[in-house]
Structure formats: C-alpha cells, structure tokens
Design goal:
By secondary structure, the chain is mainly α. It is built from eleven helices and no strands. The longest helix is centred in the last third of the chain and has 35 residues. It starts with 9 loop residues before the first helix and ends in a 9-residue tail after the last helix.
Length: 271
C-alpha cells in the first residue's frame, strides 16, 4: 500500500459512472423510489416551513433523509464495484470479502450522513455570519493581504475536499485514516474535484433547463411565477437532481479509488 500511486483518470471514472447508472437505471430507480419520495416530501416541507435559507435547521431536519440517502448510495456503489468491476480475479483480491458488505454499507451510510450534516452546518454558519454583518459595513479594499488570505482559503478548501468523500473508501473496507494517509498530497484533491465537476455540471444544466420549462409551463397555465405551486415544482426537480449528483459522483469516485487500489490507475491526459 505504501507504493500506491494515487492519481486516477477522473474522465474515465466519470464516464464509467454515467454508463453504469444508465445501464442499471431500472434497478436503481426501484432501490431509491421510497427514498426519493421521502426526500421530495422533506424538500417540500422545508419550503412550506420557510426554511429554504436556514441550512443549519435544514441539516437537523434532513438527518433521517441523509441516512437513507447514504444507504441507497452505498448499495449502488456495491452494485457498481462487486457486480461490474470484480468480474476479474484481480478485482476480487482488491475488494473486501462479500461477508463484510453489510458492515461496510452501514459504516458508509453513517459517515455519509455525518458528512452531509457537517456541510450543512459549515455552509449555514458561513451564511449566517454574512447576514449578521451590518449593512453599513464597508467592503475592504482589495490588496496583497486580502489576496494572500483568499489564496490560502482556496487552498484549504481544495485540500479539505477529500474529506467529503470519506464514505466512499469505507465500501472497500478502507478506513478514513488510511485513506487520508495514502491521499495526503495536495494534488490528490484535483482528481476528486475533476470527477465531481464532470458529474455536477451536466446535471445542474439539466436541472436549470427543466426548471425553466416547468416554470414557463405553469405560468402559461395561469399560475403566478412567484406562486407556491411553482416553488414546489422547482423544489421537486431540485430534490431529484441533488440525489442524482450525489449518486453519480459517488460512483465515479468509487471507480477512481478502485483503480488506485488495484494498481490500474492512470492520469487524465488533458493535452
């Protein structure tokens, strides 16, 4: 394990994730149908309660949803790795024994939920601190000190991005500390960021397109563009796409991490 090269082809990993999710779309839909209904209901309830901008309270309310979402995503990652990758003898030697699947799924589910809750608190606390600033507060003039602080903050965000995916190696029986030890180089985050962007951007574009179409359709039917019915329709689309991004990016990074552990990894050729 000490000689593992931690780079992987994030373009190939994302491509494999798209192909797998599309090929198994019926099985995934059946597995996640109840969860998606619960998530939509939770998103609608949050919108109805007026907590759309209160991420701190949202994180607490959504904790049961996070647990169920983590369970569904863990199950799909197992489907992807054990049924598609482990067809080779090499794959079976890298992945944990099937007897450990149930335990790994539970561990990944809990870690996923805690990660989502932590992100809700961090983003919510940041937004709350910005709202608490007096309106008369002047914006600091840009300077070298501000540039250095911004650069350091960006670097910290890039480095810490790996912490968001600690639940992925749990599926393969790799605990968080060994994972962080082997992926401790700063540049290791860029593979994870690349895979996430390739999964995030297309689905967000689809979400924006569907939101505009639904908004236009409801307005043409006589609904006010700012009505609660329109807001609920957009919220449903957001709930489904949010799950889609989490699922697709998790599978992509699982494929990438598997390629690292199996020694089949390679760098993405951009030029």
């Amino acid at each position: 394990m000490d000689n593992i090269k931690t780079s992987f082809d994030f373009v190939e990993s994302a491509s494999k994730a798209y192909r797998f999710v599309w090929a198994r779309r019926v099985d995934i839909a059946r597995l996640s149908a109840v969860f998606i209904a619960l998530k939509i209901a939770s998103f609608v309830g949050i919108a109805f309660a007026g907590m759309g901008h209160d991420l701190l309270r949202q994180g607490i309310v959504m904790m049961p949803v996070f647990l169920m979402e983590g369970w569904v995503i863990a199950q799909v990652m197992v489907m992807a790795l054990y049924k598609d990758v482990s067809d080779t003898m090499r794959g079976r030697s890298v992945l944990p024994h099937p007897d450990q699947i149930a335990r790994n799924i539970k561990a990944s589910m809990v870690l996923y939920a805690l990660t989502k809750l932590g992100l809700s608190f961090i983003v919510g606390a940041t937004m709350a601190s910005q709202q608490d600033l007096p309106e008369t507060a002047s914006t600091p003039e840009p300077g070298f000190a501000m540039f250095v602080i911004s650069f350091m903050l960006l670097g910290a965000i890039i480095y810490c991005f790996r912490f968001v995916w600690l639940y992925v190696p749990m599926i393969m029986g790799m605990r968080p500390l060994p994972f962080l030890n082997h992926f401790k180089a700063f540049g290791n985050s860029f593979n994870l960021i690349g895979a996430f962007i390739l999964c995030f951007v297309p689905l967000m574009l689809v979400m924006l397109f569907l939101s505009m179409v639904v908004h236009s359709l409801l307005v043409s039917m006589g609904f006010d563009g700012e009505s609660f019915a329109v807001e609920i329709a957009i919220t449903i689309i957001q709930a489904v796409m949010d799950f889609g991004v989490s699922l697709l990016s998790s599978v992509a990074i699982a494929f990438g991490l598997y390629s690292v552990l199996s020694g089949e990894n390679k760098k993405t050729s951009l030029f």
